[in-house]
Amino acid sequence: MKLRVDIRGTLRGRERPFHLEVAFATSARSLVLSGPSGAGKSLTLRAVAGLLRPEAGCIQLGERTFFDSATGLHLPPQAREVGHLFQDYALFPHLTAAENVAFSFSRTWRRPSRAALAQALPWLDRLGLGGFAAAHPGQLSGGQRQRVALARALAAKPRLLLLDEPFSALDHRMRDRLRLELKDLAAQENLPLVVVSHDPGDAEAFGEHLVELEEGRVVSEETYRA
Ligand SMILES: Nc1ncnc2c1ncn2[C@@H]1O[C@H](COP(=O)(O)OP(=O)(O)OP(=O)(O)O)[C@@H](O)[C@H]1O
């Protein structure tokens, strides 16, 4: 991937303002954003996804420009074709595993069609969840829920996948397993990853390029494999 992020902005909350001024560029297939709590990792991810509009700067993936304050360009999230996997999985609790994945193919808020469900099943199979298509999130373990969320993110065929502390709610063994599975799937799909994490295991697995943030700024950047 060729990802270039160079963004600035100030968020004014109830307490002191938070200044974000983050710049990095990489050609690695996976990048890990690390740093202490409140460093600006999630905000950076949200800016890449298009959920937060920086005040200035630019964001580019390959030949595509997502954001450029000089020209006023700010592509909406859906036009960026960027997948997002959250820490809490963000599954719909009232939908089955298959319906949750099928939502990737749906453009409406209606329950997914039969055709969308049929498209979802191979993704559940790939994630080892073929037998759980009719289960609701509440009937699944944490690792299984995370797999459903991963299947849903991959099924949308994103050009880039953003993961925010993706395995933090899982135990060590499940974390190691899912890391390997994600690495394999990302390689098969030729899908670049940006992983926000302060877990050294994630840095080891996905840190071809490592960017460390502190108080809204890059304090170190290292490339292990470009
Ligand atoms: N909508 C907002 N308005 C104002 N301030 C915000 C907003 N969202 C986040 N912040 C502030 O920006 C700072 C960075 O937040 P961010 O969520 O990016 O941190 P993080 O590095 O992801 O931390 P963590 O590891 O705890 O998730 C925090 O101080 C937070 O309070």
Protein model, in words:
Helix content is 31%, strand content 27%. With 226 residues, the chain is of the alpha/beta class. A six-stranded mixed beta sheet has the order 7-8-9-3-10-11, with helices on both faces. Strands 2-1-4-5-6 form a five-stranded antiparallel beta sheet, covered by helices on one side. Helix 4 packs across helix 5 and helix 6 runs parallel beside helix 7. The mean pLDDT is 91. Adenosine-5'-triphosphate binds next to helix 1.
> What is the subunit organization of this protein?
single chain
Q: What gyration radius follows from the Cα positions, in whole Å?
A: 18 Å
Q: Can you count the beta strands?
A: 11
Strand content: 25-35%
* Proportion of helical residues: 25-40%
Judged by helices, strands and strand pairing, the structural class is alpha/beta
The average pLDDT score comes to 91
Bound molecules: adenosine-5'-triphosphate
Sheet with the most strands: spatial strand order: 7-8-9-3-10-11
Domain ABC transporter: 3-226
Protein name: ABC transporter ATP-binding protein
InterPro entries: AAA+_ATPase, ABC_SmlMolc_Importer, ABC_transporter-like_ATP-bd, ABC_transporter-like_CS, P-loop_NTPase
Keywords: ATP-binding, Nucleotide-binding, Transport
Condensed summary:
The chain is α/β, with parallel strands linked by helices.
